[in-house]
Design brief:
Elements lengths: L2 H22 L1 H4 L10 E11 L9 E5 L1 H14 L3 E3 L7 E8 L2 E7 L1 H12 L4 H5 L3 E5 L7 H23 L2
Parallel strand pairs: 1-3, 1-4
Antiparallel strand pairs: 1-2, 4-5, 5-6
Helix pairs in contact: 3-6
Amino acid sequence: MSGRTRIVILLAIVSGSSSLSAQSGKLAQSDGFAFLDNQFVYIAAFHNEHDHQKSGVNRLGVGEHLAAAQVVRREFERSGAFKPIDKPSDADYVFVVYVHDRTAEGIAVAPQKYHQTKTELLNGDLDPLRDAAYSRTIVGPFKLPTLGRMSAQLVKKFHEDVMAHRTAIRP
């Protein structure tokens, strides 16, 4: 192999690995944001609701799930990595939990993005939140979907993903 071919291969490897690290950096550094210990987090939880007064597709909607928010909050308090607070405007990020049947999804977003996209969320459209996410975690489906089990696994996986990524991007 000639020296020129070796240089081309080396450049391809270096540019490919820098591209991969830039893509993986999206988890913790989207829009300059990084997850740090003791940051303040506001927890909001939602789930599908069935309105039995309406017919057809209009029966489905998304509503707040206060029990899930409380259980997820306890899991965050147990972990001690981030500090749950009561006002989204005072938070470093908002952890939005969406419970659907036997699965749960956690989306970490900026408080402003949460406020801007809440209407879409309540209409069942999570895509604007997903597009603005600092991090996204999904657990399930569970055979026995208890709220405690789903919440514990969701918070555990979120913390593992964030912590693993933080170590990977440190110099």
